[in-house]
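Q: Sequence in, structure out?
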Amino acid sequence: MSQDQLDALFGIQDALKVAEDDWVERKHEVIETQRTILDKTQEAEHCNETGWLDRAQEIMDYVKQLKEGIVAQKVEAYEAEKLVLERRHEERQALRELLSSMLPPSDD
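A: Exactly. Output:
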């Protein structure tokens, strides 16, 4: 087992933690946008029912913008998840290499 292998593993684990934090943050952004869309849609429906048609239209225009933006947010969340999976794969490979280096040589 070499110090270089340990350092590499720790570096990969640090990068994994950063990637996981980013992924969680992006998923939360998507969820918050979805909540806002739901809340604003309900608000627009209420305005529509009470005769505030101009206000209802303003809100629905805003909802339309949110729906367009959420597509980009979902793509960013997907890319962040993909990076997490890549980092996890790198971590597993580094662990395998580290464990292999700890085994005695085979007598094949």
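The chain has a mean pLDDT of 93.
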